[in-house]
Amino acid sequence: MAVEVVMPKLGMAMKEGIVSIWNKEIGDTVSKGEPIASVNSEKIEIDLESPAEGTLLKIAVPEGEGVPPGTVICYIGNQGEEIMADTSKPELQKPIEANNTDTNVKIEQHVNQPNLTSNRLKISPVARKIAEAANLDLETIQGTGPGGRITKEDVQEAIKKLQTTKDQPEPIKTQIQQEPERENGLSDSPPAEEVKQVPVNGMRKVIARRMFDSIQNSAQLTMTMKADVTKLLDLQKQSNEAIQNQEQIKLTITDFITRAVVLSLKKHPQMNSAYIDEQIHLYQTVHLGLAVALDKGLVVPVIRNADACSLLELSKNSKSLAKRAKDGQLTNEEMQGSTFTISNLGAYGIEHFTPILNPPETGILGVNSVTDTPVYIGEKLERRTILPLSLTFDHRVVDGAPAALFLQTVKQYLEEPIMMLL
After folding, report:
1. Buried b (16+ CB within 10 A) or exposed e, 91-122
2. Is it the case that residue 95 has pLDDT exceeding 70?
3. R_g (Cα) of the chain, nearest Å
4. What CATH number matches the domain at 218-421, 3.90.550.10, 3.30.559.10, 3.20.20.60, 1.10.357.10?
């Protein structure tokens, strides 16, 4: 009997999963544990492994379509095996028309509906990826594989032909060829470049919606302040020399910034809050969100009870969460419930940016690039290391002066870092 492969539940809060890509096609042989597709929820994408060995008999959910967890997305069985309907499943219990008394026929029609991928081009997953990267029109490629399937070699040959054409000198164009006919100064000719439309789904869709809602539904204001972190860098160096061999961990300037933010939030609790349903929610515990950039978007894993963590514990937790985020191993629960967020673009050389609030939080701190700058210390000009900070806050919750005092406290901790160790 064919094995049903269902959409997995990627976290307790997941309501819908999307098949982002099928690695196999109908009739392909699959091994147990082999990745057959990539699926994603709002914030997580994983490779879905085959639960059995056999042949991919049917794909029930096409790429880009979202379905609830537990929905059958494909069937795996023996070559030529018929797929038997399981009438206990709600999705197969369709109402019977009055003029059709054959229940079995009705169910058979539902199960053996035309394959959703039958109209797709026959092309291997590797060949498809190469073609998309080269922006090739698959309709123009003649497949030489079984049944006219487009192979990797077919795509590579098409790329060679395209490159040869580009390398040839362009013919001299006449004035008529160079300028399309115009009427009233306007041209009806299509643009020279073709436009590739990319569906917005999965993680990108969630980011787009949340950022739009954030701007539309809050009164955001950003203020900036510079911190002299010369002493902090000295302390960081001394700390690493003392703990690196023993703890097998290296403290970064981000770890100290994280500690400074947590301590500052305890002194300014109004920044550790959220505006929800016309009420301000003041949180007694700091759950710190750390924005992590991925290839396909942005996630914000959360350090729970950050105010109860030491500097070393914050460092270990943040590094663990960042690694698991990049490996796609975070759960939905680990990306929810933050009360304040830090977004660090310093590694990209950004000197200043205005971070967008992570709703419904009241504040988010943007960390910019550290630079060496000449600074007057009294009458003496010295070389100092300066860190620009950008604080975005919700003006519905906090006014400018209290927000400035919070940012000033963060600065004080960074400029007198020994205070963070007491």
Report:
1. eeeeeeeeeeeeeeebbeeebeeeeebeebbb
2. no
3. 29
4. 3.30.559.10
Q: CA 356 from chain center: how many Å?
A: 16
For 3-111, give the CATH class: mainly beta
* Cα 284 to Cα 286: distance, rounded to the nearest angstrom: 7
Residues of the chain with CATH 3.30.559.10: 218-421
With a threshold of 0.85, does the pTM exceed it? no
Give the number of residues written for the chain.
422
The residue among 395 and 333 whose pLDDT is bigger is 395
Task: Just list the catalytic residues.
Answer: 395, 399
213 vs 415, which has greater pLDDT?
415
Q: Which contacts of 66-69 are long-range, i.e. CB under 8 A and separated by 24 or more positions?
A: 66/16, 66/17, 66/18, 66/201, 67/7, 67/16, 67/17, 67/18, 68/7, 68/15, 68/16, 68/17, 69/6, 69/7, 69/8, 69/9, 69/10, 69/14, 69/15, 69/16, 69/17
Mean pLDDT (the chain) is 82
Strands (E), 51-184: 54-59, 66-67, 72-77, 182-183
Q: Which tokens in the block code for residue 348?
A: 């990209």
Q: How many CB atoms lie within 10 A of CB 254?
A: 19
3.30.565.10, 4.10.320.10, 3.90.870.10, 1.10.3860.10: which CATH number matches 125-167? 4.10.320.10
Q: Which residue has the tokens 């970064």?
A: 252
**Half-sphere CA count of 371, side-chain side, radius 13 A:** 13
